[in-house]
Each structure stands twice: as structure tokens, then as C-alpha cells.
């Protein structure tokens, strides 16, 4: 038996239940983080994937990953504990298997720039049905200017167990590949929670949020405006600006660059003010395949950490109309 086979032979819910009190909710299991002191469950376990994710600490992976972080031990020591738990004695740690173990342990580490492997998760079409449509919980985004029409269009819902707004992230074909979450806990900073997170780990991000939903408008205008976060897409959609997407981070991945090159339209980057896209290697490469523009706040309209939509439609349109061409540099 190899390490990968050993992991597959262990029911992760049964195993982690020895360390965390887990409660089932719509096929997922939740409990308090074993890595952080918290009062609201943010530790999620999925039996079908054999993986866990702790939203409070950002730690996620398999049983092997859990043991490594829980006991602060090496991968080999963690494997020995799994062998004892499984009651097997024929696990061989050959060099190739060591590589497997290392890969598993690093599965949820921040992706390096050269990583090209996309996320392989494809969720069921009805995946969002496990979450509620709660008008009272959606009110927080209504107060920030997002319309009911845009909330419905992008299927924003409420996860009562984690107390988060949630929204599906779809690939180019419309398949759900991840779920984004926005905490509604007013003390999220004090509890060291992430305001925004994703329910499944990414490889190298290979999707653009909103591309599937807005493709008709993007092809019609022959332009896509790219923000960092999903909420900016919803806000722009509310204003009637529907040729938008989000890259879900502050830099463009190689797979996203290829996707944009294949679409072949003009690309306007509207990232947060503190981000200098001229230093982004993949954006520079994109210039070979598309006309690339970027929003640059020369006139002090935004605060340092603002997205271009944060000061309202009028400011955004002002900045958009003064966008600069990256192809000239």
C-alpha cells in the first residue's frame, strides 16, 4: 500500500471526529477550529473529497495535513500515525511515495507563480441549493448599493452555519468550480476570520468570475473590465456595466492570461489602487494577444486600498474614461 492509497482508505469524517466535534449540515461537516480559539464553527470537512478546510487559519488538506499541523510534526511522523490508526503494516515509503506525501502536504500551500495546474473541482449543478435565500441577510449588500436583480443574477445566498453570504464561481462552461464567502460576523477582525474566502482550495486560478454570466455583453462590447473581487462585479452590474469579471486576486494567473488571450477582446484592468499592474508578468505577456488598458488614479479619487468602484458610479466612470494603454509601455 502506498501513502495515497492509505489516505483513500481512511474516512476523513470518522478520523477528524476524534479531534473535533463535527455536526453534519447538508452533507458537509462543521466544527470549531482546532487551530484557533473561536466560538463560531469554521472548520469544514467533506467526506466525498477526503479533505478539510479551516477558514479561520487557512489550513486545509487531507488527514495527513491535519496531523502535521495539529501535532507540529513532519510528514513522515504524520504518516506513521495514520498507519497506526488504519491498523496496516504494509505501507512502503519508497522515494516515489515520499514525493506523493510531499505533494499532499503542499496541496493547500499558496500557489507559486510557476504553478499551472488548475483547480480540478467541479461541483454539482444544484450545489447552491444547500444554502438559503435570506432577504434579511442579503440586506448588507443592498445597503452597499447592490440591486436585488444583480443578487439574483449571481445567485447570492446565505450559509447559516458559517454566517456568510455565499456565491457560486463558474468556469467558462458555466460549471460551479468554487464558492466564495463573505462573513457577516461584525467582529471578524477580532476573531481573526477572513472577510472574504473560498470554500474550496484553488490550484492556479483558471477562471474569471462573471465571465460566464456576462459573456454576451463582453462579446458585444468587445471588452472586458476586470476587478479583483466578486462584489465589484455585482456593483458594476447594478449600474448597468455588465461587461465585467473578477480575477479573484491581485495578480493574473498564467491560465487566466491564456483564457483572456483566447477571447481576443480588449482588456481593462480595474484593480485596487495599491496594485501596480505594470509589474505583473502575466499581464505584460497578455499585451502580445490583446489591447490592454488599466485604470490609474492620478487625481486622488480613491484611498490606497480602494477598488475603483468603491467611491460610486460617477468616480468609476471618471477613472474609466481616463484609462491608460499598457501596450504603449
Short description:
With about 325 residues, this protein is of the alpha+beta class. It contains 12 helices and 14 strands.
Features:
17% strand, DNA Primase, Chain A, 5-stranded mixed sheet, globular, 329 residues, DNA primase DNAg catalytic core, N-terminal domain, Dna Topoisomerase Vi A Subunit, Chain: A, domain 2, alpha+beta, single chain, 5-stranded antiparallel sheet
Q: What does this molecule look like?
A:
This protein is an alpha+beta fold and 329 residues long. It has helices at residues 3-9, 12-16, 63-71, 75-86, 95-105, 135-143, 148-153, 211-221, 230-238, 254-263, 281-286, 313-321, and strands at 23-25, 28-31, 43-46, 51-54, 59-61, 157-159, 164-170, 176-183, 196-198, 223-227, 244-246, 266-269, 292-294, 324-325. It folds into three domains: 3-105, Zinc finger, CHC2-typedomain (DNA Primase, Chain A); 127-198, DNA primase DNAg catalytic core, N-terminal domain (Alpha-Beta Complex), CATH 3.90.980.10; 211-328, Dna Topoisomerase Vi A Subunit, Chain: A, domain 2, CATH 3.40.1360. The protein is built from twelve helices and 14 strands. A five-stranded antiparallel β-sheet has the order 1-2-3-4-5. The protein has a five-stranded mixed β-sheet with strand order 11-10-12-13-14. β1 and β2 (28-31) form a beta hairpin.
The CATH architecture name of the largest domain reads 3-Layer(aba) Sandwich
Average pLDDT number: 86
Strand order of the largest sheet: 1-2-3-4-5
Largest sheet properties: 5 strands, antiparallel
Structural class: alpha+beta
Order of helices and strands: HHEEEEEHHHHHEEEEHEHEHEHEHE
* Number of β-strand runs: 14
Regions with little confidence, pLDDT below 50 for 5+ residues: 94-119
CATH topology grouping of the largest domain? Dna Topoisomerase Vi A Subunit, Chain: A, domain 2
Rg estimate, integer Å: 22 Å
Number of domains: 3
Percentage of residues in DSSP E strands = 15-25%
Give the CA-CA distance, first to last residue.
56 Å
Using the alpha-carbon principal axes, give the shape: globular
Number of helices: 12
CATH class wording of the largest domain: Alpha Beta
Helix content: 25-40%
Amino acid at each position: 500500500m502506498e501513502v495515497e492509497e492509505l489516505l483513500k482508505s481512511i474516512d476523513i469524517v470518522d478520523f477528524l471526529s476524534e479531534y473535533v466535534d463535527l455536526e453534519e449540515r447538508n452533507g458537509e461537516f462543521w466544527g470549531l477550529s482546532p487551530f484557533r480559539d473561536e466560538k463560531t464553527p469554521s472548520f469544514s470537512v467533506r467526506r466525498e473529497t477526503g479533505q478539510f478546510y479551516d477558514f479561520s487559519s487557512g489550513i486545509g488538506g487531507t488527514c495527513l495535513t491535519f496531523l502535521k499541523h495539529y501535532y507540529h510534526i513532519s510528514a513522515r511522523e504524520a504518516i506513521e500515525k495514520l498507519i497506526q490508526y488504519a491498523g496496516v503494516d504494509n505501507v512502503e515509503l519508497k522515494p516515489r511515495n515520499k514525493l506523493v506525501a510531499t505533494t499532499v502536504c503542499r496541496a493547500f500551500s499558496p500557489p507559486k507563480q510557476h504553478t499551472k495546474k488548475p483547480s480540478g473541482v467541479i461541483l454539482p449543478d444544484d450545489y447552491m441549493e444547500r444554502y438559503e435565500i435570506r432577504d434579511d441577510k442579503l440586506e448588507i449588500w443592498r445597503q452597499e448599493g447592490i440591486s436585488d436583480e444583480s443578487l439574483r443574477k449571481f445567485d447570492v445566498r446565505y450559509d447559516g452555519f458559517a454566517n456568510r453570504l455565499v456565491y457560486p464561481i463558474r468556469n467558462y462552461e458555466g460549471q460551479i468550480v468554487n464558492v466564495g464567502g463573505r462573513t457577516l460576523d461584525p467582529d471578524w477582525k477580532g476573531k481573526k476570520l477572513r472577510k472574504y474566502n473560498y470554500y474550496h482550495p484553488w490550484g492556479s486560478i483558471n477562471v474569471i468570475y462573471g465571465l460566464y454570466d456576462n459573456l454576451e455583453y463582453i462579446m458585444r462590447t468587445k471588452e472586458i473590465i476586470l476587478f479583483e473581487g466578486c462584489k465589484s462585479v455585482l456593483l458594476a452590474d447594478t449600474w448597468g456595466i455588465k461587461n465585467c469579471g473578477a480575477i479573484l486576486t491581485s495578480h493574473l494567473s498564467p491560465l487566466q492570461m491564456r483564457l483572456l488571450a483566447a477571447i481576443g477582446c480588449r482588456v481593462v484592468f480595474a484593480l485596487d489602487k495599491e496594485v501596480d499592474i505594470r509589474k505583473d508578468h502575466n499581464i505584460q505577456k497578455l499585451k502580445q494577444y490583446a489591447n490592454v488598458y488599466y485604470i490609474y488614479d492620478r487625481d486622488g479619487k480613491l484611498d490606497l486600498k480602494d477598488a475603483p468602484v468603491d467611491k460610486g458610479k460617477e468616480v468609476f466612470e471618471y477613472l474609466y474614461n481616463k484609462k491608460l494603454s499598457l501596450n504603449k509601455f
